[in-house]
Amino acid sequence: MLTIPVLTSEQLILRPFETADVALVSRYAADPAVADRVSRSAIEYQSPEQWIDQQHVNFEEANYLTLAITQRAGGQLLGCITQTHYEADEHAELDYWIAKPYWNRGYATEAGRLMLDYTFDCWQLRRVFACHFATNPASGRVLEKLGFTREGVLRQHYCADNVFEDLVYWGLLRHEWARDRVHRRPV
Amino acid sequence: MAADQHQPTLTTSRLTLRPFDLSDAPAVQRQAGDRRVYQTTLRIPHPYKLADAESWLAGSARRYAEGQSIEFAATLTATGELVGCIGLEITPVHRHAELGYWIGPDHWSCGYATEAGRAILDFAFNTLGLHRVHVHHFAENTASARVIEKLGFQREGLARQHVYKDGQPIDIVLYGLLASQYMPQ
């Protein structure tokens, strides 16, 4: 049986979600500050318990990896990060959200680095891509810091509550990640 | 699309775009089985067996009834000969669709993809009421780029090495067309 990994950096521990996280996940995900900035599939589920169970199934069967972003000191739950692996094309899609009280502290970037390092090391990946709503430029800054290149804008591609959002599309190739990793300060 | 509605037939000056029929299987296999079609598309297997064509055709009416996609056989009105396939993969919640097509290599460079594409866009925006249609091509496929540009699409990006085919990473060029900017030609 495959076990969802735990990834650790200076400030963060990324770990599998647990039942005890459910109440907080529901509250965070219901906050418009998060809900209006992510795709519905990232936060909509029949029940949070099912959502957590599904993460284990997804990891075993399809190499989706969803992790809780938590503070290393104190264990506070901060958000969620997912890497979805499309094996046939050897690429993956990165998604993340951080609860509003913890914005602007670099947590998404730090969590993104952990996820990219793990998945480029452990999965057969040539590329990772990510999208965000054009109305959410903070997400683009995270991707830029992670070394992604802005590859395009899909105009009015996503409809939420009758509002059509532009999707900004980013990509990171394996050699770009490897080059950036070499220049990173060791943690 | 309601299940009780029959897929319409569209006509252009030279083409009749009609629902597929199981009897199209040998023609689909012969044309889509050509390696040149395989090289410019993502989901067509190679070699393409008659059974592959049959199972794909058998699902076409269901995919239409379920509102997932609409696929048309592009045929010459004069002779009834199949020249290719054109269709839309629809995402109702976002009111958008992806345009896809292939033309049998015997019929390349006759302008059929552009002619069929115009009819499909008219159908997408004026009949289905979609908000956006998007399309992509492999970066090396300049013939497809010309078709897409003639149809009025705007280039929106380049997804580098986004797909993997026969051991090679392939860049994908992304295009979109909004209903508000669609101008029938």
Notes on the protein architecture:
The complex is a heterodimer of chains A (187) and B (185). Chain A is built from seven helices and eight strands, in the order E-E-H-H-H-H-E-E-E-H-E-H-E-E-H. With 187 residues, chain A is an alpha+beta fold. Chain A has one domain (7-182): 3-Layer(aba) Sandwich (Aminopeptidase), CATH 3.40.630. In chain A, strand 4 (77-86) and strand 5 form a beta hairpin. Chain B has a domain at 10-134: Aminopeptidase. In chain B, 30% of the residues lie in helices and 34% in strands. Chain B is built from five helices and eight strands, in the order E-E-H-H-H-E-E-E-H-E-H-E-E. Chain B has helices spanning 25-32, 35-40, 50-65, 112-127, 142-150; strands spanning 10-11, 15-19, 69-76, 82-91, 96-103, 132-138, 154-165, 168-178. Chain B has an eight-stranded mixed β-sheet with strand order 1-2-3-4-5-6-8-7, with helices on both faces. In chain B, helix 1 (25-32) crosses helix 3 (50-65). The radius of gyration of chain B is 16 Å and the shape is globular. Classes of the chains: A alpha+beta (187), B alpha+beta (185). The interface between A and B is medium-sized, with 21 and 21 residues.
Overall residue-averaged pLDDT value of chain B:
95
Kindly identify the CATH topology of one domain in chain B. Answer: Aminopeptidase
Counted by DSSP, the helix tally of chain A is 7
Shape of chain B: globular
Which of globular, elongated, flat, extended, rod-shaped describes the shape of chain A?
Answer: globular
Number of helices of chain B: 5
| Share in β-strands of chain A | 25-35%
Q: Main sheet of chain A, how many strands, which sense, barrel?
A: 8 strands, mixed
Q: Give the CA-CA distance, first to last residue of chain A.
A: 30 Å
